[in-house]
Design goal:
homodimer; alpha/beta; Rossmann fold; 3 domains; 6-stranded mixed β-sheet; DNA-binding; transcription (chains A, B); transcription regulation (chains A, B); HTH_LacI (chains A, B); DNA binding (chains A, B); Lambda_DNA-bd_dom_sf (chains A, B)
Chain lengths: 349, 349
DNA sequence: CTGAAAGCGCTTACAG
DNA sequence: CTGAAAGCGCTTACAG
């Protein structure tokens, strides 16, 4: 990138920075003494410490972050790379909620979040490597783990503090936020089963994600064990695909009496498709969204949804990271999930 | 924060870093020569430059970000503070879309985004000040400007590169992404007027925002000039308040025949309230959402919405910032907005 | 074109 | 308890 120095200068004003040398001079001590004083370390008498601190405040001194980093101080920043397509990030409210949760815990502790979007897993890994090499982040959060995820392998190899959200890996430097996807799926299917449904369809998100595979397994197992006929159809989080899937399912000679969608956007797309087809919810078919939101509460009919609270998930992930960095035992609270029963589910005809 | 050194160490492995001194030694030159070589500056012959570069690659050298920052190099990072309540950020899809747009432009140019949430405007300002003092960011993006916004005043006073999204300030260091809120509001009201509506209500977002005030002004002016009766009701982006506002409006002896909501979440809340009241959309009342989304497209009826594409807005903001930092003339392309007509608007009874 | 050296702002052994 | 000095990894005048 070429910086043209000729054009109108917008360089932040180069106010000469106040350094510990300035303080040292004013206080009549050495810069080393200032360092001890401001860092609360022994090496200066209480009287001089107080005097130094006064001067520092008077001069509005702030430590140079760059110099401290050069001396090996932590960046106090956590990295998060989002590697889903731009459209998905812009539609799925999950990301905004998750980030909000992460932020709220981080900023309480003075940490900040470094965020970047990546086109694919490979570039996500290289972003992580750059951050690590630059010392820009103290640790990273990994979302949407896959089976034997290459990012987690790379990060574990670098022995870099990592929290895998919805993963299962546990090493010295890598911890996971455990999310019971199978249990949540059972919650949903049991709810439908209890209502009397025996033909259930599941429209999935991206099947290469580990958490989606867990859901699929739990779905299949429950159906088999309980004599329920279950269809599983790939959806990929795309509402257009969810619409097609819904049409195909209802055109079947043996249509399902209940539909489960892997995301709110997909569930809404499915509901709208049913309306177009003249299929009544819940009279003709019941519908469940995996992911709750205000929208689910205000739609008509309101949507029965699995509420797992992405904000809390973000908070847990951030808290685990902070504990990992502080060498504290990492508490891994269960991620609560509950089915919120609303109007879109009822006994089948 | 206490760091306990006793527990299991999760410090990133302290691999001794490869420095320019290492390269210098291997290549038989001074570290100054290495610096010239790797930075493409004159001062070394082509032959030595090539040799040095070879050694650098061989040793997998990467410049120390901290050292470079200490020498005054840019952080290549842009800051963004979100100071709306956590719930709003977690519900309004605007933020995720805007951030996605910002990211896509920034990451193409090797810049990253520093994100933080703040409880209020005052702490937003202090976050900015910290970032600036730490040299963590080269410039900042400001969202939701208010009239005579204190953040913008502070940033302008610091002469720090700033892009105000939806603002109007233009100084040497502060530029704005101009958003024609009044024009967009006219688009909406003209659409309703053309359909024959003469009693229109507008449920607003947070009225302390400059862009909301612009919308309100344009709404009032259009109504007055065209003999339309217009109600304006404060909504504050809260769906519960939007519901109450909707109920109050429809309970009026002179209920409006069309409703305009300042956000998608509010519009959906409004629509659901209408359904509860047994008011048909669009037969009894028309409805417009300021903010388009997939959800608007799949609801039943589909929602007529103002589409202003928050992703593009983010891209424009990021592009302006990069131009400002590069001392290039800042292009300020108009932010396109269009009304997408769907099923929720029709002529009144 | 090249080399030796000072400096960015801090921290931390190491002697007194 | 205190002071003088080296060092973190780079950049950049300043002499040759």
């Amino acid at each position: 990138m070429t910086v043209r120095e000729d054009a109108g200068a917008v360089e932040p004003r180069k106010r000469k920075r106040v350094t510990i040398a300035d303080i040292a001079e004013r206080a009549g001590v050495t810069s080393g003494a200032v360092s001890f004083a401001v860092n609360g370390k022994r090496g200066v008498s209480d009287a001089t410490r107080a005097r130094i601190l006064d001067v520092a405040n008077e001069l509005h001194w702030r430590p140079s972050h760059a110099a401290q980093t050069l001396m090996g101080k932590n960046a106090e920043t956590i990295g998060l790379v989002l590697s889903r397509p731009e459209e998905v990030i812009g539609e799925e409210i999950f990301f905004a909620k998750f980030i909000a949760g992460v932020q709220s815990v981080l900023s309480q502790r003075g940490y900040s979040l470094q965020l970047q979007m990546a086109a694919d897993i490979a570039s996500e890994i290289s972003i992580h490597e750059n951050w690590i090499a630059d010392g820009r982040v103290d640790g990273v959060l990994v979302l949407d783990p896959r089976v034997d995820d290459p990012r987690v392998r790379a990060l574990a190899g670098l022995e870099y503090p990592t929290i895998v959200v919805g993963g299962e890996v546990e090493t010295e430097t890598v911890r996971s936020v455990h999310v019971d996807n199978g249990g949540s799926m059972r919650l949903i299917v049991e709810h439908l089963f209890a209502l009397g449904h025996r033909r259930i369809a599941y429209v999935t998100g991206d099947q290469s994600f580990w958490h989606i595979q867990q859901r699929m397994d739990a779905f299949a197992e429950f159906c088999i064990d309980n004599g329920v006929w279950g269809h599983t159809l790939a959806g990929n989080f795309d509402p257009a695909i969810a619409k097609d899937a819904t049409k195909r399912l209802l055109a079947s000679p043996e249509p399902p009496t209940a539909l489960v969608y892997d995301s709110e956007v997909m569930a809404i797309a499915g509901m709208s498709t049913l309306a177009e087809l003249g299929v009544a919810v819940p009279a003709d078919v019941s519908l469940v969204s995996w992911e709750d939101s205000t929208t689910c509460q205000v739609l008509h009919p309101t949507l029965t949804a699995l509420n797992r609270d992405a904000v809390t998930l973000g908070k847990i992930a951030a808290a685990e990271m902070l504990q990992l960095l502080a060498h504290e035992p990492v508490e891994q609270p269960p991620v609560e999930a509950a089915i919120v029963q609303r109007e879109s589910t009822a006994p089948p005809r």
